[in-house]
What does this fold into?
Amino acid sequence: MQIQNIYSNIPENLDQEIFERLAGNSGVVIEKIISNGQRSPQSGWYDQETNEWVLVLEGKAELAFKDQETVILNKGDFINIPAHKKHKVNWTDSENVTIWLVVHY
It folds into this structure.
């Protein structure tokens, strides 16, 4: 077994989001996402087949849901997004890196 650190390998220049699969199997996927000012495309929504549990470890972001609800997630905040709940990322912090821990199940 190898010990890793969730805060390691964070580049200084983030032209695009980084998605890193940390662990998983056929039913669960755990990933780290690193953002710095990125957002979802203007058109379209994420409509995932699985539930998605999201924790913001650093930074902040705003999620929008197709039913018009929006939520701001700050460091330490988490949310569970049910499968097929259409959503997108309105913004991530452009001043500081946002690190997400995401579990798809």
